[in-house]
Specification:
- The complex is a heterodimer of chains A (291) and B (253).
- Chain A has 291 residues and is mainly alpha-helical.
- Chain A has a domain at 56-211 and 253-287: Orthogonal Bundle (MetI-like fold), CATH 1.10.3720.
- Chain A is built from twelve helices and two strands; from the N terminus they run H-H-H-H-H-E-E-H-H-H-H-H-H-H.
- In chain A, strands 1-2 form a two-stranded antiparallel sheet.
- The two termini of chain A are 33 Å apart.
- In chain B, helix 3 crosses helix 4 (123-136) and helix 3 (107-119) runs parallel beside helix 5.
- The chains are: A mainly alpha (291), B alpha/beta (253).
- At the A-B interface, helix 8 and helix 9 of A face helix 2, strand 8, helix 3 and helix 5 of B.
Chain lengths: 291, 253
């Protein structure tokens, strides 16, 4: 006879009862009007917001990764100026709330700098000049704010990845006559990826949701669009649910993508690569007896 | 004929610790020099100084008639730029105790990486030469395997092929068999023996006295940062002159 786990049964029953009670009371209170949710889930305004959210998240994350690599390498540089500048950047952008940074870019910068001018220094040649309010659109401010903030977090992630690579790897590369830049690109970063990818996936999932802060500076992303709708028809809860469903879809797709990318970068580390979900399903199907 | 390696009063310090305290030696082209000694005697450090993985603090070190890591112009010595140091290193092969193969690359990718990226050898040529080198160390059939799929002995043979791919004029071996299971030592020593037979100039830091006796042209016993005794391997191993050599050999033989 196996040991009976009475505790497990009891706790499961309690938790299920609580969940049932929550769902039941929500339904009874007409908390969710599914008809309204269905009506707006694929409405063009919401889809436009969804698209804006994806564009903003992807651009900000990609820029953040590039900034992260640059600042991580600077931080690890033997040049004290490089290292200090990078430390300051990380300290500043990690230490202030993203929402404050967004307000700073959108509201603060145009107040201080009236025009954006790109010119060749010490000459009168102007390449580009525009009023700051034209340049600093809600999108630009959201993009700059999110990307620079993300860069600070990515810098620490990339740095952790780089220092996780065995020193012997750098020595072997040096002994073969590879320069430090070539070693970084070909030997260190590809191996650091194994450590960098999982937290980067988390960062991107987090970024998909953080873009909703851009609604506070009038950028028309998903939450802002949902807000636009419920401010006219007062269907607040269904539209928040519509937005939440889209956020869940985005983050779920991102998690699946993360799994496959991690698998790709584990190359050479495992004797045989882990099975993909599809391969596992196929295996179970083959194993089960024919019906 | 210029010596392949020439050391003159080479000193190396790590913080307060003096690791090398005046090393003088010469290695002729085609010669196999074996360095033995207790751990901490400075033998690995000296090897790493030869390709400038460590900077020396005093003395002079030449490889093939050129200063290592520096350039002499008149009486002055100038430190070389990173790119120039790298170019010099490319001419010296090194094999490490822990192999240090690139784990994200297959055996053949490990071998062709430096020729392609450093020397600019075309992919096709590099791949043909690489396969030939893997064949030479008996691993042509493993060319698509990742290091994690290879035994220690196989990994070290790939590492030897990787170093040879740069067509070095000098090979440095830093305890190449110390991390191996006993039954895998032989295959690596065989590859090294073959290399010595082909006329490669080699400096080998090792604890394999059999290899030293059989393959070495010259044996150096180092202790406490200095060369205690140097001579023909057969003579030193059979009848060491110095007390410290005798004590060391009595422990390892």
């Amino acid at each position: 006879m196996q040991v009976r786990h009475w505790g497990r049964w009891l706790s499961a029953i309690v938790v299920l009862a609580l969940v049932a009670w929550l769902v039941e009371s929500a339904v009874r209170a007409h908390f969710i009007d599914f008809a309204v949710v269905r009506k707006y889930q694929f409405s063009s305004l919401i889809l436009k917001g969804l698209q804006a959210t994806i564009v903003l998240a992807v651009l900000a994350q990609m820029t953040g990764i590039v900034l992260g690599v640059v600042f991580a390498v600077m931080r690890l540089s033997k040049n004290p100026v490089m290292s200090a500048v990078s430390s300051f950047y990380i300290w500043f952008f990690r230490g202030t709330p993203v929402l404050v940074q967004l307000f700073f870019w959108y509201n603060g910068v145009p107040l201080v700098f009236h025009r954006l001018t790109i010119a060749i220094p010490f000459t009168h040649v102007t390449l580009y000049s525009t009023p700051m309010t034209t340049f600093m659109t809600a999108f630009m401010a959201a993009f700059l704010g999110l990307a620079l903030n993300e860069g600070a977090y990515m810098a620490e992630i990339v740095r952790a990845g780089i220092i996780s690579v065995d020193e012997g790897q750098v020595e072997a590369a040096s002994a073969l006559g590879m320069t430090s830049m070539l070693t970084l690109r070909r030997i260190v970063l590809p191996q650091a990826m194994r450590v960098i990818i999982p937290p980067t996936g988390n960062e991107f999932i987090s970024m998909l949701k953080t873009t909703s802060l851009a609604s506070a500076i009038t950028y028309g992303e998903l939450l802002r669009r949902a807000g636009d709708v419920y401010s006219t028809n007062f269907e607040v809860v269904p539209l928040l649910i519509v937005a939440s469903i889209w956020y869940l879809v985005l983050t779920s797709v991102a998690s699946i993508g993360q799994y496959y990318i991690e698998r790709r970068f584990a190359r050479g580390r495992m004797r045989s690569p882990a099975e993909t979900a599809l391969q596992r399903v196929m295996k179970v199907m083959q194993r089960s007896p024919r019906l | 004929m210029t010596a392949m390696v020439k050391a003159e009063a080479v000193h190396k310090r790590f913080a307060r610790l003096e690791v090398l305290r005046g090393i003088n030696l010469e290695v002729e082209p085609g010669e196999v020099m074996v360095i033995i000694g207790p751990s901490g005697s400075g033998k690995s450090t000296f090897l790493r100084c030869i390709n400038h993985l460590e900077k020396i603090n005093a003395g002079r070190l030449w490889v093939d008639g050129e200063l290592v890591g520096y350039r002499q112009s008149g009486d002055k010595i100038y430190e070389l730029r990173e790119r120039e140091v790298a170019r010099k290193r490319a001419e010296i092969g090194m094999v490490f105790q822990h192999f240090n193969l690139f784990p994200h690359m297959t055996a053949i990718e490990n071998v062709v990486e430096a020729p392609m990226r450093v020397k600019g050898t075309p992919r096709q040529r590099a791949a043909e030469d690489g396969l030939e080198l893997l064949e030479r160390v008996g691993l042509a059939d493993k060319c698509r395997a990742y290091p994690s799929q290879l035994s220690g002995g196989q990994q070290q043979r790939v590492a030897i092929a990787r170093a040879l791919a740069m067509e070095p004029k000098l090979m440095l071996f830093d305890e190449p068999t110390s991390a191996l299971d006993p039954e895998l030592v032989g295959e690596v020593l065989d590859a090294m023996r073959q290399l010595a037979h082909d006329g490669m100039t080699m400096i080998v830091v090792t604890h394999e006295m059999g290899f030293a006796r059989e393959v070495g042209d010259d044996l150096v016993f180092m202790d406490d940062g200095v060369i205690v005794e140097q001579g023909a391997p057969r003579d030193i191993l059979a009848s060491p002159r110095e007390v410290r050599t005798r004590e060391f050999l009595s422990k390892v033989l």
